[in-house]
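Journal club side-thread
Mid-discussion, someone asked how the predicted structure for our own chain would compare to the paper's figures. Pasting it here so we can look after the session.
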Amino acid sequence: MIESLRRGFAAIAMVAAILFGASGARADEAAEAASAQSFIRTLADHALVFVNAKTMSNAERSAGFRALFVEAFDIPDIGRFVLGRHWKSASVDQQQDFLKAFEEFTVLTWSTRFKDYSGVSLEVDGASPADEGYLLVESRIVRQQGEPLPVGWRVHKVDGKWKITDILIENVSMALTQRQDFASVIQSSGGTVDGLLTTMHKKIDELRAGQAH
């Protein structure tokens, strides 16, 4: 009789551990999802300041976007991905040159485009697991004209802070698109990373000149 009771209590304890463990895991996942969504909302709020500031100069807009980009994006992770198989074959100096050029190119490109997004807002719809350790935050850019634009943010934590590794606009990966573009430039430049770097620096100079006017 006593042995039967022991087995019964043991079974109950096991079931309770499984149930409460699963409940705790779900609570942790929900908290992480809420945290990731809050991160994207805060980022959007800060970015929209630069979008909607009509009197802001190009230099001020670039400086503001650079601060956001460096803080919110996992530049090394994105850089390694977009350079693809060429990352491993590149020297340390080439890798560092590429990451700096990639940051500069992105900042100048998007700070220029920001002016075209005046009057928009961003609504966050939710977050779901992507790859292991990554979440996909789903959102919509609401425009004054036209249908809302679906935007997904692939994020993970680096040293306890959320970082963006990719943006999906209407389910099209910006990181994958850049990877394909860079691979095409490398192929047309004799298959060398130096050829890509030369092209990127030339484009950066053109963007800087355009913002100076």
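Post-session note: The beta strands are 121-129, 134-142, 149-158, 161-169, 172-173.
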